[in-house]
Amino acid sequence: MRITANPLRGQQFPAALLLAAAALGLLLANVPTHDAIAQVLEARMAVPGTALDLTVSEWVADGLLAIFFLVVAIELRHELTHGELNSLRKAVQPAIAAGGGVLVPILIYLLIAGPASPTAAVTTVGWPIPTATDIAFALGVLAMFGRGLPSAVRVFLLALAILDDIIGIVFIAVLFAHDVDWLMLALAVLAVAVFAVLSRVLARTGSSGLAVLMGVIGIIAWGLMAVSGIHATIAGVLLGLFMSPVPAERTRHALEPTVNGVILPIFAFVAAFVVIPQVAAGDLSPAFWGILIALPVGKIVGITLFGWLSLQLRPRGTAPALAFPDLLAASVLGGIGFTVSLLLAGLAFESDAAVRDEAILGVLGGSLIALILSGIIVSLRARHHRAVAAAHG
């Protein structure tokens, strides 16, 4: 009997599902059914006896996405301890390239929407938005179009995207905290510590009852973080980083299909549920143009330039870990900023719905440009490598 692998554990299908969900959200936001769906997304759902009172869309961004960040943090921890970032030698090139992939988009964004802009007081705060690379999308496109590329391209892209996630997580934690309740934050950290200790006991005993208790403690940690003023997704990050390795990997394996098949598509749908402004191109916010240009252009220039500089650090006479054309292909993939960029757009312009919606459209447009360019460039590089392999085969 042939066993079919779960497509939700792959890269291609989840990426296609994510894109379809975003397209559906954008479509339904701009048809007559908009009001009915908007009412559902704006409906409030409170937890009796707690300070938690969020809209449906906030439950998605603060609650469901915390599970995604839990899985990302587990993968990040693995890469930092046993994977592609477990030594300075392995991390230096993608780290330098990731730095360029953050700094250059910020610079481009600020040149367009910063102090020189007539709306700078509103739009300047959006500078973190074009700094993120979407792991699921980037690896999905690489899997679709990159057959024949050296494995070093995937390794570099994975390390780059993970480092981008670290930076994005720091931005969320530091820049978008508001009216912090230090007591609630301390209790959230205490809950994470209890969760971490229980995970180590679970690794030794394998008790199913303990696993259930950990789930309860994890939810409590999330709730405390949510009411503390720190974005609730940070709870998912902390839980994933401090969980014991064995139960952490089991948790990641168990949650991966749900995250790829349910959580990320729902978030993509909700985040992309944006009415396209009926205005002339010249009337669009500088935030829109800043993101639209900074994501694809900033990532390509930043990752390629800084990645090339990092190549010069290798010992004299040794071959580069990544050929320059392959570095360029990886940099274009880095311009696909989706999940974290959409979250950052919602946080940066939370108080201005019009700019927020245009910023989200900028993320969608910039990511689409990068997706198309990466499909073309990655396909050309893969064809080149397949031809070289055939010539030497």
TrEMBL record:
Membrane topology category: Multi-pass membrane protein
Protein name per Swiss-Prot or TrEMBL: Na(+)/H(+) antiporter NhaA
Organism taxonomic ancestry: Bacteria, Bacillati, Actinomycetota, Actinomycetes, Micrococcales
Biological function: Na(+)/H(+) antiporter that extrudes sodium in exchange for external protons.
Gene: nhaA
Transmembrane regions listed in the UniProt entry: 54-74, 95-113, 125-143, 155-176, 182-203, 210-242, 262-280, 287-308, 328-349, 361-380
Similarity section: Belongs to the NhaA Na(+)/H(+) (TC 2.A.33) antiporter family.
Gene3D superfamilies, per database record: Na+/H+ antiporter like domain (1.20.1530.10)
Keyword list, A-Z: Antiport, Cell membrane, Ion transport, Membrane, Sodium, Sodium transport, Transmembrane, Transmembrane helix, Transport
Location within or outside the cell: Cell inner membrane; Cell membrane
Reaction equations catalysed: Na(+)(in) + 2 H(+)(out) = Na(+)(out) + 2 H(+)(in)
Source organism, top-level taxon: Bacteria
InterPro entries named among the record's database cross-references: Na/H_antiporter_dom_sf, NhaA
Pfam families registered for this protein in UniProt: Na_H_antiport_1
